[in-house]
Amino acid sequence: MQIIEQTPTKLKLKANYRARIIAQIIIGSPFFLGGLAIIAIFGQLASLECHRFSFSQTSCQLISSGVLGRTVTRLTALQKAEVSLKRVKNSKNYKVILITQQGKVPLTVYDSSNEQEIDRIANKINTFIKQQQQSLLVEQIDRWFPSYVFGLIFILVGAIVIGPALLYPLEISYTFNKEIGLLQLQTQNLFGTKSVEKMLDEVEQIKIVGILIKHSKTYHLSLILRSQQQISLLVYENFSQQQAEEIANQIRQLLNLPQ
Fold first, then answer.
1. What is the bridge-based pairing of β-strands 136-142 and 103-106?
2. Which of 64-68, 175-179, 193-197 shows the lowest per-residue confidence on average (mean pLDDT)?
3. How far, in Å, are 6, 7, 146, 200 from residue 196 at the CA level?
4. Which residue, 61, 68, 62, is CA-closest to 44?
5. Phi and psi for 177 in degrees, rounded to 5?
6. Cα(64)–Cα(24) distance, rounded to whole angstroms?
7. Phi-psi region of 184 (alpha: psi -120 to 50; beta: other; left: phi over 0)
8. Is the dihedral of CA 231, 237, 240, 244 positive or negative?
9. What was the pLDDT predicted at 209?
10. For position 156, what pLDDT does the model report?
11. Measured distance CA(251)–CA(191) in Å, rounded
């Protein structure tokens, strides 16, 4: 908050919070977008469906369903299923790889740490390929629940950071104008500009109010009107008592208010 205009009959204070809002959005966006990406990429239901029409004719398709829609991949001449192992630091991650005439096709886009489950799926697919009398294979891997939980946690963290910033004022100005006898308060945010006017002769007193936030104290000003209504100033600032006193004294001097 700065004094941008000061004359014997006019005092104008103005604060710009755009940098603070942009900083909050920058901090919160990776969490919010990361959560959306987790849900979009990993929150999928993978389904392998194979139909055997004869000993030599088998039709297979891999279906992936998620928030972004449904993808169907037709597999030509499914030959076998393999388990791929990926070591990440001290952990092991597994994935089922389908060997087809087209090449290697992963059953899912994500890995799993459950070796037994991955082995079970691969063995089931290989059993279907070997046993010619089996006419139908349907195998589903549903990972939407844990992906949605983790994704929503990230989205929530991002929303907690970004949400208040969207409601935060971009700019606030207070104009004490003795020439027209008005106190003009103007607040601009993302949704528009709000203006409030009060008669200067309604202002009876100005107080400094201290607020304890965690282990530190910040100060704002409160204008007391004759109707006992209070108008808070500097509420978005982290002012010391001395800084608040300086601005309060400028207002008192202009309006001839008591200390």
1. unpaired
2. 64-68
3. 21, 22, 49, 12
4. 68
5. -115, 105
6. 36
7. beta
8. negative
9. 82
10. 94
11. 30
